[in-house]
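Technical note accompanying the year-one report. For the benefit of new consortium partners, we illustrate the data format agreed upon in the data management plan: each record pairs a sequence with a structure-token string. No post-processing was applied to the example shown here.
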Amino acid sequence: MRSRAFLALSVLLAALAFASAADAMGKSRVAAIQVTLMNRGLYHGTIDGIRGPLTIAAVRRFQRRRGLVADGIVGRQTRRAFGRYGRYALGGRMITQGMWGWDVAALQFRLAWRGFPSGPMDGRFGPRVSAALLGYQGWRGIGADGVVGPVTVRALREPPPRSRLAFRRPIHAPVGDRFGPRGNRFHAGLDFPAPWNKPVYASRRGRVVVAGWSAGGHGRLVVIYHGYGMTSYYAHLHRILVRVGQRVGRGTRVGLVGSSGTSTGPHLHFELRRRGAGVNPLPALR
């Protein structure tokens, strides 16, 4: 009886976590507005797709600058005042590398939430956006041609991928930065601030596929494959305690907290990926 109650509670908590994460995702149209205003020096918040007080205030500043009614609403006149940059919504034209505009900013936002961040969200279709798009198209199986047409736009309207497995917390520490926008970039995992050398544990049984230094900013990194296309990442470690090919159980020590790689202080950066696409770890943690 107790086990059934515990299972029901776990399912409920997971559902609440997913609902909270979905609410926090924001809208790509609002994110495009935020990028537009940031490029004009009028918005200094996070590109989160949420129409909050900072976004409304920035819209009003733009409207006053252009002699429009400062109501904080981006209607037809305000959008026209954005000029060429605001001409196309996502899906209004075919876009590819070298192009720029409102629709590119919306593309960057959607790609990031679907597990393929592309660096700064600035509304410019550069090499990193191209690489993220090709990665997403290949992951989604829609033909990796690097062009955003109707098929890609329809796919990007689908919900973001979720973990197919449940995971245990990898460390006894509170959650700091979460999965989602951070400034004009996207944070692809969870951060757990913790003291130096605090143990880090495998979140689920699996096989170690990476155990060493990562050139991508993760520093000392452990990656474990768990089956069903799911991998877990343990980054910025001070010391690695496992080797490539080793089978580990849930709760096995894989490393010690550090600040290696691109890091401003000791913490564990934890990611989950599904066939290479980053997914929000929070709903999967039990």
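Partners are asked to follow this layout when depositing records. DSSP finds seven helices and eleven strands in the chain.
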